[in-house]
């Protein structure tokens, strides 16, 4: 199996004032929290958003592993809907000492390029900043961070920086080259 160099950039916000919200897209786009932990729905979002950009780390998770992850206090999934259809999502994962990671963020390919991503990221970052308000006993958020890599969409880094995220680390590592799995085995995403 061949390897390819992959650059990973880590970005952060250290104050809610860092967030530079995008304008809401035209049309009926809503961002709603998926409050009921659902392995089926979360795996659907993960595979549908990441299938063409080689998200593979969670494809082998069992149902029980998904359930365990989603039931962790403070883990939240926020879903963008365009006229009732899931268009993308943001997954928040609280860490120690008031840190919240945006672990996954992205759009289903058919919804990219329609100004939904900036709006969804704005909503997700805002929800990371006020996460402790929904989870009694959590330390208020002091830092929101995420990472993106050279395998992600071509506009990812620009979107993060336009929302006020600042670069704090860059790494280049060799990774095994894998085929884009698509949203399900054998699929060929458009």
From TrEMBL:
Which InterPro entries would you find in this protein's record? Acyl_CoA_acyltransferase (IPR016181), GNAT_dom (IPR000182)
| UniProt superkingdom | Bacteria
**Which molecular function GO terms apply here?**
acyltransferase activity, transferring groups other than amino-acyl groups
Q: Which CDD domains match?
A: NAT_SF
Domain (N-acetyltransferase) spans 29-190
Naturally occurring in which organism (per UniProt):
Streptomyces filipinensis
Check the record and name the Pfam families matching this protein: Acetyltransf_1
- Which PROSITE patterns does this chain map to? GNAT (PS51186)
Record's SUPFAM superfamilies? Acyl-CoA N-acyltransferases (Nat)
What is the official name of this protein in its record? N-acetyltransferase
